[in-house]
Amino acid sequence: MVQKAKILLVDDRPENLLALEAILSALDQTLVRASSGEEALKALLTDDFAVILLDVQMPGMDGFETAAHIKRRERTRDIPIIFLTAINHGPHHTFRGYAAGAVDYISKPFDPWVLRAKVSVFVELYMKNCKLREQAALLRLQLEGDGHAGGENEKEPAGLLAELSARLAAVEEQAEALSKQLDDESADAAAVATAAHLERKLTGLRRALDALEPGTGGGAGVLPAQG
Fold first, then answer.
1. Do the beta carbons of residue 18 and residue 42 sit within 8 Å?
2. Residue 67 neighbours by CB distance under 10 Å
3. pLDDT (tens digit, 9 = 90+) per residue, 79-98?
4. CA distance 84 to 110
5. Sign of the CA dihedral 24, 85, 18, 128?
6. Per the database entry, which stretches of residues form a coiled coil (predicted)?
7. How far is CA 163 from the centre of its chain?
8. Residue 54: strand pairing partners
9. pLDDT tens per residue across span 26-83
10. Distance of CA 64 to CAs 58, 192, 227, Å?
11. CA neighbours within 13 Å on the CB side: how many for 139?
C-alpha cells in the first residue's frame, strides 16, 4: 500500500488554513497544519513533506526567515516551498521570495485550480522519488544477501538490476515529458528548475545502477543518498 504524501500548510490565520485544506483535500494526501514558522520547523524535524505552502506575512518569524531555516537544514533543504502572500510589493518582493528558496510565489487571492495543480506536480515528483529510493534499498539488500548466499542465487541480481533499470527508465521518460510540458506552457523558471533537480537525481540513480552492472567494478554501496 502506497503511503500518502504529507503537505505542510503554514499560516497564522486559521481561516486561511481551513481554505487551503478545502482546496487541497481533493488530492487525497495528508495535510499538516502549522500556525507559525516555529511550529513548521518543529514539524519538519520529525516528518518528511512533499511540498510546503508558506505564508509570507506572519508575526514573529515570517515566511522568508522560516524558509531560510528550512534551506539551511540538510534534511529539509530540497523540499519545494510555495510562498503565499496577500501583499504584492512588485518584482523586488517576488525576487526576495525566490531568493529565499521558493519554487513558486503566489499572490492572494489565488485560483484554487491553479494552486491545486501546482501542488499535485510536486506531490507526484515526491512519490516517484520515494518509490525509486525504496526500490534501490531493496536491491541493495538483495545484493548483500546474494553475496552471502553465493552459488544458487548468482543469477538473481542481474534480474533485479534489469527490472529496476526498466522501472527507472519509465520514470526518466515521465520526467522528460514533464520538462517538455513545462517548456511548452512557458512555465516560470522556478518550476523548470525543480524539474531539472529531479532529472539530476534520476541521473544519479542511473549512474549507480550502471556501476552495479557486472564487470564495472561497482558495488551496492555506491547508491547515492536521495534527499
1. no
2. 23
3. 999 998 876 666 666 666 77
4. 9
5. positive
6. 161-188
7. 24
8. 10, 83
9. 999 999 999 999 999 999 999 999 999 999 889 989 898 999 999 999 889 989 999 9
10. 10, 22, 22
11. 27
* CA torsion angle 12 65 72 124 (round to 10): 40
Beta bridge partners of 9: 33, 53
Identify whether the C-beta of residue 122 lies closer than 8 Å to the C-beta of residue 51. Answer: yes
The residue behind cell 534520476 is: 202
CA 227/CA 207 separation, integer angstroms = 17
Provide the 10 A C-beta neighbour count for residue 97: 24
- What distance in Å separates the CA atoms of residue 181 and residue 192, rounded to the nearest whole number? 10
d(CA 76, CA 181): 27
Contact 1, 31 (CB under 8 A): no
**And the C-alpha cell for 67?**
524558509
Q: How far is CA 180 from CA 97, 126, 176, 186, 214, in A?
A: 25, 19, 6, 10, 34
Give dist(CA 79, CA 65) in Å, integer. 16
User: How does pLDDT run across 104-133, given as a tens digit for each residue?
Assistant: 888 888 899 999 999 999 999 898 888 888
CA distance to 66, 129, 225, 227, per residue, from 204 (Å)? 30, 12, 9, 12
Terminal CA-CA length for the chain: 22
Residue with cell 491553479: 114
Q: Is 105 left (phi over 0), alpha (psi -120 to 50) or beta?
A: beta
Residues in the chain, overall count: 227
